[in-house]
Design goal:
By secondary structure, this protein is an alpha/beta fold. The protein is 41% helix and 13% strand. It contains 10 helices and 8 strands. Helix 1 runs parallel beside helix 2 and helix 4 packs across helix 5 (132-144). The radius of gyration is 18 Å and the shape is globular. The two termini are 14 Å apart.
């Protein structure tokens, strides 16, 4: 039978995101969440994960906030990470030491270990681990520590006539899988999200049924979600027009995933988590 992992990103970003994730988990519309360990609400998120027994992964973050490992080639002089765009530019210019990425990854893992969290897997903020340089830098750690990792392999391709930008990204993810994904990596087989829809102007619960529908059998599918509860702090974090559009989509996701109980219980899937993959 197919297994469905429903993972919420950005746990710990701020209090309203933490509250949104808990609300959706209580409604049985999440099976796990990935934690940002260098944000102001990380500690509160950890407390909530223990209170509600939410399986936690690492939302590996090297594109915003402050480094846990200190100043390096992936930070400015004040230990703050460069933006994703700037980081990737520096990688192309050969200005990034892969060891600095490794040390930051280990520091963020150590943070979870110190909090006695048996983390289940990792993904990354802005999908930065799908940069070939970064995934190669992390390869040996992932394999030696037997860490489950988010696979961005698309379940379905968006229609290029209706959502060209997403189709291009999906093609990129497919190419990364073909050329750089190690056969020893463990995790989900496919991934989907509302951004794979041909249009996200009107998101509704039926959209999720369409997203996870498949003719594949015996797969592990991850549905990536970003439930955000509307708050002033969100609009202090996200300020550009594009970012605000993203936040509004996240608020819509929250409204759907927190409103109805067990939206995915009667689908042709067994609800699962990366934690179950570790124990299986």
């Amino acid at each position: 039978m197919n297994k469905l992992i429903i993972n919420a990103d950005d746990f710990g970003l701020c209090d309203s995101v933490n509250e949104a994730i808990v609300d959706c988990f209580v409604q049985k519309n999440l099976t796990s969440a990935t934690l940002m360990v260098n944000t102001k609400s990380s500690t509160k998120a950890l407390e909530l994960s223990k209170k509600y027994n939410i399986p936690i992964g690492l939302h590996f973050n090297i594109v915003r906030g402050k480094s846990l490992a200190g100043r390096s080639t992936i930070t400015d002089n004040d230990n703050f990470f460069f933006s994703r765009k700037e980081l990737f530019k520096r990688i192309i210019k050969n200005q990034v030491n892969p060891q600095d990425i490794q040390l930051e990854f280990l520091a963020q893992i150590k943070f979870l270990e110190n909090e006695e969290v048996n983390f289940t897997h990792f993904d990354s903020d802005n999908h930065s681990h799908y940069n070939p340089f970064i995934i190669k830098a992390l390869r040996n750690i992932i394999i030696s520590k037997n860490i489950n990792v988010r696979n961005l392999n698309p379940l379905k391709f968006s229609n290029p006539l209706l959502n060209l930008n997403r189709n291009i990204k999906q093609t990129y993810y497919k190419l990364i899988n073909f050329f750089f994904w190690d056969k020893n990596f463990q995790g989900n087989n496919y991934l989907t999200s509302i951004y794979d829809l041909n249009s996200i102007k009107k998101i509704n619960k039926e959209n999720y049924n369409k997203l996870i529908k498949t003719n594949y059998s015996n797969i592990i599918l991850e549905l990536m979600v970003h439930p955000y509860k509307k708050s002033e702090e969100l609009f202090k974090i996200y300020t550009t027009k594009k970012e605000i559009e993203f936040v509004n989509n996240c608020i819509k996701e929250y409204e759907i995933l927190s409103n109805d109980y067990g939206l995915f219980l009667n689908q042709n899937y067994q609800l699962s988590s990366f934690k179950a993959l570790i124990s299986s």
